[in-house]
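Need residues for this backbone.
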């Protein structure tokens, strides 16, 4: 199973590089094909003494439009496909669902890898759209599958491996995106095309993975097949206790109507759990982490780093190392504790980053404060707010509403990603060095919410987690009834 999600989640090769290292190269190719820029005209303009100048490719309005669409279409694809996670997972099962959607990643890789054969801007945008659609599905199906097959003692560590594979993919993409490897005029289509390669490998490994026992037993009622799947996952053992837990969960699910996305939103039973799930995904994206990843090279340049590209790769290394720390700690320290520590630490780092950027022109050592704050910011993110939202949704919900909840949480995540990616450049211009103060305020709010509302799910069964919310709901109902009674007595 670990091989499964390690291969699935390296889909981000070619994803981050589009926003950082090769943007100028791709913009030049767009401009050259669209006829609004040429290298010869640009050189003549630089050497000319006349007032008329040929603007850089990336500053031409048409190129800006197509480049912005290339960046944004990825998140839009993820937003749209996230609603189909439950449908794909229930159609033929978790494993077959993941296997079916691999064709999307392969098609996307071919579109981007062969973009020079036709119109590069159309091919890249189409490939990014298809890849985003694939990633929206796989970022829901993988945590769903992991959450259902993982033993409760290791559910957090296995869930965090999903994030580890993602950050490993980002690091690989940053390294192979260097100009002397694939990030150059000749090789950049291959760099983008490689994003489809993990899907080929995953297609070979998926048939070795057993189907989710919870899917087989609770949704299909196939007890013997669920027992066989459990033995494939855990080895030869007495599966009676696990089957009994699934039986109770199935009986509970059978008493309720099938939970769709719309009914989940309307249900008062799941409202608190859904709020927790959505806010945790919001905290992941609105923490400012994507602002760091999207614009880290520019931030390091502003801080006076002579080789900002390598500093950005350093961020990727820190990102990966501290995700490993999260894998080791999440089932010992707990989800709530790590999330609180991560959000609180990021809030302090955002303030330190603001101070460093504000005074770096007056004090040269302030650039080190800014850089240290970036590295620490990423470290705190990967300790908790990075990996935990992806798998905690599967822990908060039982089998019935799980698919709908993961779909909603995924859509929330992708929508937030899109909003940050599109608005951060404008916010940065508006607030300048104070931009991270905005994220510090948001992080403080998320920290308070986590402290007050998010329960600890470490080592608990799905039944026990549900009981925590039911207990809180009954207490609120009792308190409301007492307040109403007091109000009635006062009126009398």
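Answer:
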């Amino acid at each position: 199973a670990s091989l499964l999600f390690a291969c699935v989640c390296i889909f981000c090769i070619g994803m981050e590089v589009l926003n950082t290292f090769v943007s100028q190269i791709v913009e030049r190719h767009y401009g050259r094909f669209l006829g609004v820029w040429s290298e010869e005209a640009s050189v003549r303009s630089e050497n000319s003494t006349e007032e008329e100048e040929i603007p850089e490719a990336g500053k031409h309005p048409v190129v800006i439009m197509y480049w912005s669409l290339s960046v944004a279409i990825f998140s839009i694809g993820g937003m749209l496909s996230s609603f189909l996670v439950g449908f794909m997972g229930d159609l033929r099962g978790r494993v077959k669902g993941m296997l079916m959607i691999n064709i999307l990643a392969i098609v996307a890789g071919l579109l981007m890898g062969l973009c020079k054969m036709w119109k590069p801007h159309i091919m890249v945008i189409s490939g990014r759209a298809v890849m985003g659609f694939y990633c929206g599905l796989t970022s829901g199906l993988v945590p769903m599958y992991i959450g259902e097959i993982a033993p409760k003692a290791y559910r957090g560590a296995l869930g965090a491996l999903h994030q580890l594979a993602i950050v490993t993919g980002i690091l690989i993409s940053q390294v192979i995106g260097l100009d002397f490897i694939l990030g150059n005029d000749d090789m950049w289509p291959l760099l983008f095309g490689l994003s489809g390669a993990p899907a080929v490998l995953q297609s070979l490994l998926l048939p070795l993975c057993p189907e989710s026992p919870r899917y087989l037993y609770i949704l299909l009622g196939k007890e013997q097949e669920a027992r066989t799947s459990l033995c494939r996952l855990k080895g030869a053992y007495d599966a009676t206790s696990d089957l009994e837990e699934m039986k109770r969960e199935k009986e509970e699910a059978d008493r309720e109507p099938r939970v769709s996305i719309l009914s989940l939103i309307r249900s008062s039973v799941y409202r608190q759990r859904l709020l927790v799930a959505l806010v945790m995904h919001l905290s992941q994206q609105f923490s400012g982490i994507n602002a760091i990843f999207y614009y880290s090279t520019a931030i390091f340049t502003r801080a006076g780093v002579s080789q900002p590209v390598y500093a950005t790769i350093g961020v990727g290394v820190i990102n990966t190392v501290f995700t490993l720390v999260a894998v080791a700690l999440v089932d010992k320290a707990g989800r709530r504790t790590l999330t609180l520590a991560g959000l609180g630490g990021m809030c302090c780092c955002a303030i330190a980053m603001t101070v460093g950027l504000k005074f770096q022109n007056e004090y040269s050592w302030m650039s080190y404060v800014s850089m240290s704050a970036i590295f620490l910011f990423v470290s705190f993110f990967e300790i908790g707010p990075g990996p935990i939202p992806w798998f905690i949704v599967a822990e908060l919900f039982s089998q019935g509403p799980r698919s709908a909840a993961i779909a909603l949480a995924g859509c929330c995540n992708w929508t937030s990603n899109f909003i940050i990616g599109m608005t951060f450049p404008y916010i940065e211009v508006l607030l300048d060095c104070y931009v991270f103060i905005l994220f510090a305020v948001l992080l403080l709010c998320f920290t308070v919410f986590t402290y007050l509302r998010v329960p600890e799910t470490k080592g608990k069964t799905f039944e026990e987690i549900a009981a925590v919310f039911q207990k809180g709901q009954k207490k609120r109902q009792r308190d409301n009834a007492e307040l109403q009674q007091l109000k009635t007595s006062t009126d009398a």
